[in-house]
Write a structure and sequence with these properties.
By secondary structure, this protein is an all-alpha fold. The chain is built from 18 helices and 2 strands.
């Protein structure tokens, strides 16, 4: 796979030309609208949601049919992939790619997210909206806020305790840690019910409780304890690794912003995002998020239109001299892991430095 990139200008510079650059996105938006790429695709989403729903039914049918059998681990792995596809469907619903109206989008998002996979729609919406507004901004984007992992050398220098230990080896630990991401989504969703920003928290809580109780009850009623625990961990591990493999290539290792560093909307979205090249199988596996640049520019664009939009956006960025980065899936993981290793350097140097006498 190859990497196509145009050397980007600084994310912000004294000679911004704000009045001119402020219209760059408007001109691109007109081209996209004239191509008809913002139209809804009800037929596509009817088929897609039906197929994902059938896969979910097939998975649970296999689970109850097999009963006490170690073949259940194959079902667990399959269900991890199905939960990933459900999360991608919830993502499209939240961005109003499926329905124009807010109410229909919220109802669909809560059914798929809270009830289907045990992930709070309200929690995810709050977090993801802030990410879209300021991608890769270290103070404003929750996806690059320091936690267990650090995303910049400044964050690494401030890391102590467990984050400090993990930060030294985070490139090697990244994919193993993703096996816990499914559990993290469930825990974060429940904890978010206490947050003041949460709307319809009673409904959100009821749907989450229904999913979690039903899920755990099904495992321990149908399977003996040891097998149930094995199913639980494998299912959530595959789910977590799948989600992480989809989302990590999108921004990790791309330029980050700090403080008042805020270029115009087009450059803020394009220069901090990475596209993943591939064919129809990549489009299905990554749910269209392999066109991350186009998705960030037009978040309510139906995912089947993103491939066509890419041609327009890439050509337009070339006209402006704006960096447009795309690479293969494995190469995108490699770039993200290289970035994680580099930002952990201060922690490794700190460990090697002799203690003051």
């Amino acid at each position: 796979m190859t990497t196509a990139t145009v050397t980007p200008p600084p994310l912000s510079s004294p000679e911004d030309g704000r009045s001119r650059r402020g219209s760059d996105f408007a001109r691109l938006s007109r081209r996209i609208a004239e191509a008809g790429l913002l139209r809804r695709r009800p037929g596509y989403y009817t088929v897609r949601l039906t197929l994902v729903g059938l896969a979910l039914v097939a998975g649970w049918t296999a689970f109850f049919t097999l009963g006490e059998s170690w073949w259940q681990l194959a079902v667990a792995a399959f269900m991890g992939l199905v939960f990933g596809q459900l999360a991608l469907a919830a993502h499209d619903l939240a961005h109003r790619q499926v329905f124009t109206g807010r109410r229909a989008s919220e109802v669909g998002g809560r059914i798929v997210g809270n009830l289907g996979i045990g992930m709070s729609y309200g929690w995810w919406m709050n977090k993801h909206t802030r990410h879209h507004a300021n991608p890769n901004h270290e103070e404003l984007d929750p996806d690059v806020a320091p936690d267990i992992l650090v995303w910049s050398q400044d964050q690494a220098r401030a890391a102590k305790g467990l984050p400090g230990f993990i930060g030294r080896h985070q490139a090697a630990l990244f994919f193993p840690l993703l096996t816990l991401e499914g559990f993290n989504l469930h825990v974060s969703s429940v904890r978010a019910l206490r947050e003041p920003h949460m709307k319809r928290r009673l409904l959100e809580g009821l749907l989450l409780f229904t999913h979690l109780v039903g899920y755990v009850a099904a495992l321990f009623v149908v399977l003996p304890p040891g097998m149930a625990v094995a199913f639980l961990f494998l299912h959530q591990a595959v789910f977590g690794v799948y989600l992480g493999s989809i989302f990590a290539p999108n921004h990790k290792g791309m330029p980050t912003l700090t403080g008042d560093d805020r270029p115009d909307f087009l450059r803020r979205q394009v220069l901090t995002s990475r596209n993943v090249t591939g064919g129809w199988l990549t489009d299905i596996a990554l749910g269209g998020l392999n066109y991350q640049i186009e998705h960030h520019l037009f978040p309510n664009m139906p995912s089947p239109h993103l491939r066509q939009a890419q041609v327009i956006v890439r050509e337009y960025c070339a006209e402006l001299g704006v960096g447009y980065h795309e690479t293969g899936l494995v190469a995108s993981w490699r770039e993200a892991l290289r970035h994680l290793h580099e930002v952990g350097a201060p922690l490794r140097e700190e460990r090697r430095s002799p203690a003051p006498s």
